[in-house]
Every structure is written in structure tokens, then in C-alpha cells.
Amino acid sequence: MQMFNILLLLKLRKMPRQILILLSLIFTENMRTGFEENKDFPIVLNSVVAGRYYITEYLGSAAFSKVVQAHDLQTGMDVCLKIIKNDKDFFDQSLDEIKLLKFVNKYDPLDEHHVLRLYDYFYHQEHLFIVTELLRANLYEFQKYNQESGGEVYFNLPRIQVIARQCLEALVYLHRLRIIHCDLKPENILIKSYSRCEIKVIDLGSSCFLTDNLCLYVQSRSYRAPEVILGLPYDQRIDIWSLGCILSELYTGEVLFPNEPVPMMLAQMIGIIGPIDMEMLELGQETQKYFTDDYDLFTKNEETDQLEYLIPEKSSLRRHLQCPDSEFVDFLSYLLQINPRKRPTADEALQHPWLSFAY
Description:
Layout: H1 2-11, H2 17-26, E1 48-49, E2 53-61, E3 65-72, E4 78-84, H3 88-106, E5 118-124, E6 127-133, H4 139-149, H5 157-176, E7 179-180, E8 189-193, E9 198-201, E10 208-209, H6 226-229, H7 237-252, H8 262-272, H9 278-283, E11 298-301, E12 306-309, H10 317-321, H11 326-335, H12 346-349
Antiparallel strand pairs: 1-2, 2-3, 3-4, 4-6, 5-6, 7-10, 8-9, 11-12
Helix pairs in contact: 5-7
């Protein structure tokens, strides 16, 4: 156990001092790692956590965390508490997110770049807590609510334009810090103000630096860029592809590339956006999983174990969107280019004429 502690501290020697202190609290009992107990922290409304945070509302849960609204008794602010499940992998990923948020917030002291603010983090009853600013619903939840309520459509073109501009400004900021978000999707864009249509980009848990050893599998499937699917090297332009998918979804109310088996998604991409460059197919480490030696797209029939060719249904982004605003269609076509070399950077995308159009 002592050797485990030493190795852990050596591995994390570059972490901020506060995080190292937090880690030291976990390894206090002999032969204990801090991860043996119940993985879920019991949520009790109107209780106080760590002598400071008064829990007022349960907001929801994700794969590795629960989220509650709380009142900070020290500052008087309402905040969001993200409670990480008691699991080493989740704990490690959350520490990475804390480090990145601290780094990103440090260079944005005036909160001008539409990225979530981190207020505090601590270890309490064998659970890691992350304290951030309190935001509203995410884009997915609010669009679903808006559709089901039958009220006036919230995500009209003027508001989509405002959201697009803020997202790109956030990406410009992150990308200049050489960070790839790696999981941009409607669930990771939260509304700060409904009336002003202000948003914040959240969840840097999957993010990485350009200088890191890039993981083969990143991005949620429906927002995954073609170069990631094919196993090619990638950069910040994968975030631009994700943003194009998100804006299309906000306009139509439907996911552009539904979460289906990868060959089906590739067929939809080819049908709507256009063919995949031969160079990408030739160099992709994963190409052989979805294409024959002659680069015909195929899928495997699980019942018969036979290969079946897929012929993409010819369409276009314009036909899919059914949008009379040609500048908006052109903007999305600009973002959603199969070849990442032709895809714009966030800086370049901000210069597109549609973002300057006054509705």
C-alpha cells in the first residue's frame, strides 16, 4: 500500500498543491484506497455538505456523477455541486477536468469566453465534489421541453446565430490554449440566460491538449468527426464538425446523424455531405472495419454473418435542413466538410458572412 501511494504521488507530481492535498486525504487508512464504499453519495435536501453548501434541489445524474443545486453559506451564492461517484476511473477523469478548468479560468479572469466557471472542489465522505457556477438547462433538454410544450419555437435562426457565435468564441479561446474539447454536444452546452440567449460550454472531462497522446475514441457518436471514425490523426477541427451537427439539430429538431451502427452513420454522412476523400480512406487505421479493399461501404448482417454493401442515399444538407436562408445553409456546409483540411478553424468560421447578418 505504501508503494502504491508513492507511485501515485510520482505520477501526479505536476498537479497543483491543492489537488495533491486532496489526494492525500483519500489514502489515510491502512489498506484502504478510499474507493471501497457505496459509489453513490446519498442526496438529502435541506442538508449541509462540508459545513458550507446547503443543498436545495436535485438537478439530475450522469454516468459518473450526480448534480445538485446548493446555497453557498460562505458567499451567499447559489452554486452547482457535481458529486463524483466513488470510483477510481471517474475520480481520475474528474481530477483532469478540475486541472483543465483551473487552467482555462485562469486566463479568463473576466469570464468573457463562455466557458464554465469552477469555484471550488473538495473531498467529503469518500466522494469528490466539484463546485461550479449554476446554469440552466442544456440545449438538448431545453429543446425537448420546448417541443413537448407546444409553445413558440425558441431555437429560431436569430437565436441559433447567437449561440453559434458564442460557441465559436469559446472554441477560439480553448483552441488558442491548444485544447481540444473532444465532446461538444447539446448536453454539454448549457443556457445561462434564456432572455439574452447566453450559453456556457461545459464538461472538459474528455478534453486534451494537442501535445497529448490523442485517444482513438473521442466524441459522442452522433457528433463524431469522420477523421476520428476512420482512425486518422485529428486536431481542434473535430470540435468544428461537432458544432455543425449541433446547429443543424437546433434548427431541425432532429439529430443530423442518429446514433446508429457506424457503417450506417458513414452512409448518412456520405449521402448528405458528400464522398470521403480517397486519401482519408487509404490512411485511416479503422477504414478496413467499414470499407472493402475496393473502398465499398459495408456492414455485417449479425443474423447471417454475411457482408452487405451499403449504398448511401443521395441527398444534401440543403434538402435535409429545408431552410430558406441560404447563408445559414452555406455556413453549416462550411463547418461540415468531410476533409478536416478544408474545414475552417474557429477563428475562420467566425468570419463567415452569416454570423454578421442582422435578422
